[in-house]
TrEMBL record:
Pathway: Cofactor biosynthesis; coenzyme A biosynthesis; CoA from (R)-pantothenate: step 3/5; Cofactor biosynthesis; coenzyme A biosynthesis; CoA from (R)-pantothenate: step 2/5
Protein name: Coenzyme A biosynthesis bifunctional protein CoaBC
EC number: 4.1.1.36, 6.3.2.5
Any one Gene Ontology BP term: coenzyme A biosynthetic process
Keywords: Decarboxylase, Flavoprotein, FMN, Ligase, Lyase, Magnesium, Metal-binding, Multifunctional enzyme
Reaction catalyzed: N-[(R)-4-phosphopantothenoyl]-L-cysteine + H(+) = (R)-4'-phosphopantetheine + CO2; (R)-4'-phosphopantothenate + L-cysteine + CTP = N-[(R)-4-phosphopantothenoyl]-L-cysteine + CMP + diphosphate + H(+)
Residues of the full protein shown: 180 to 403 of 403
DNA-binding keyword on record: no
Length: 224
């Protein structure tokens, strides 16, 4: 089933994978977060290691054991993830943004714990976070660096995915259908991988490791 893949086809390649979901602090004990488990990103790291790659895994708020052989950097907020991705991507042949990044963060983090006052609670003002994937594609370290994004869509999956691929400027966009218990926190994943070259690859429902291997097949084809 695994076409073109094999032990060693990523030997000598350095890949950077982000996994998990970022958390934006509201006060010292509270945050805005999301339900990403990090399992797809970890599956990408494990399969890349099995294929011989040198792997940096930037892990945001996951509860998963470090994959043996990966260099793991743990981050919390989007700002921390962004700094780590910019530091690590410079020397990378491929960068995969599998992390679920918070689109917005509180405009300010309250230094002390917010207390009830008896009145109406103060609203939390939000500001938009920087788009890390867009920054990575605009600042590609070298021609030939392959940049991969992930997208979770609830409807019009392919149309939304095509538009997102173009907007982000990535080489490949892995589009998952989410909602109704699909994808987040589950062992299995199903996706269509859209390429900047117009290609479209359907990946049937299966373990996240299988999807990861198919993504690396498509990355390997683009590395030269
Ligand atoms: N992403 C990122 N930085 C952000 C938001 C998203 O790097 N601030 C990356 C994600 O890691 C993913 C890709 O962009 O690889 C697509 O994320 P998605 O949330 O689907 O796209 P958005 O541009 O945030 O659009 P939407 O409004 O649909 O959430
Ligand atoms: Ca988003």
């Amino acid at each position: 089933l695994r076409r073109g893949s094999g032990p060693g086809d990523l030997a000598g390649r350095r890949v950077v994978v982000s996994a998990g979901g970022t958390r934006e602090p509201i006060d010292p004990v509270r945050f805005i977060g999301n339900r990403s488990s990090g399992r797809q990103g970890y599956a990408l790291a494990v399969t890349a290691l099995a294929r011989g790659a040198e792997v940096v895994l930037v892990s945001a708020n996951t509860a998963l054991p470090d994959p043996a052989g990966a260099a793991v950097r743990r981050v919390g907020s989007t700002a921390e993830l962004r700094d780590a991705m910019h530091e690590e991507s410079g020397a990378a042949d491929a960068v995969v943004m599998a992390a679920a990044v918070a689109d917005f963060r509180p405009a300010t983090t309250t230094p002390g714990k917010i207390k009830k006052t008896g009145g109406a609670p103060a609203p939390i003002a939000l500001v938009e976070n920087p788009d890390i994937l867009l920054e990575l594609t605009r600042g590609r370290a070298h021609d030939g660096q392959v940049v991969v994004g992930f997208a979770a869509e609830t409807d019009h999956v392919v149309e939304n995915g095509r538009a997102k691929l173009a907007r982000k400027g990535c080489d490949l966009l892995v589009v998952n259908q989410v909602g109704d218990g699909l994808a987040f926190g589950t062992a299995d994943n199903q996706a269509v991988v859209l390429g900047a070259d117009g290609s479209s690859t359907d990946i049937p429902t299966g373990p996240k490791e299988d999807l990861a291997d198919r993504v690396w097949d498509l990355v390997a084809e683009r590395l030269s």
